[in-house]
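Dear support,

I submitted the protein below through the web form. The confirmation email said the job was done, but the results page showed an empty box. After a refresh the structure appeared. I'm attaching both so you can tell me whether what I see now is the final result or a partial one.
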Amino acid sequence: MNVLLLGASGRIGTRIANELLNRGHAVTGVSRSGAVDGVDDPDFSAVAGDATDADQIARLAAGHDAVASALGPSDESPEVLVEMLDAVIDGMDRASVDRLVWTGGAGILNVGPDTRLIDSPEFPDEWKPVASAAIEAYGLLEDADDLRWTYVAPAALIEPGERTGEFRTALGELVSDEDGESRISMEDFAIAFANELESGDAVHEQLAVGY
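What the results page shows now:
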């Protein structure tokens, strides 16, 4: 598979790139600067691109089998996430690429009947602006009927760690362990992300990942 990876220079992006490359896929990694550290493979190419520019997305996506995204907003401007997804959807349509796997946030996931994580008392206030932007962006995906999209959401806590290959997935529900902790390593998240990109088992779904 020939994959265009947006946000390739971030901590999650580099891990997704390496996971896909290790499986034999070709990856074009996009970052604002055009530089991606931590990825060294003959099937990888790094390019500069602005994920808020639909014209650039259309040009970069052309000829690829799928678009993968590890894009994330800064804390200072979380609303840019909506702008980016809008541009990605538009650009992919112009490029006639219809498979998108998008790294979302855990805030949208259900933790009980009619209760999302963002609405739970334990959800930190400082995380709410970014989580709210991710949920608003998800609304754009719901309307993108022509795209075979999947929204892959990590556990409540995602951080660098080990690549164990041992994790669980769920549709639309936060994954927590028997102690109520919800966490996942970036390495194992990358495995789940690549699995879904390859299989397409959760098209038009929120795919949650955790231990």
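Response: this is the final, complete result; the empty box was a page-load delay. The CA atoms of residues 160 and 186 lie 5 Å apart.
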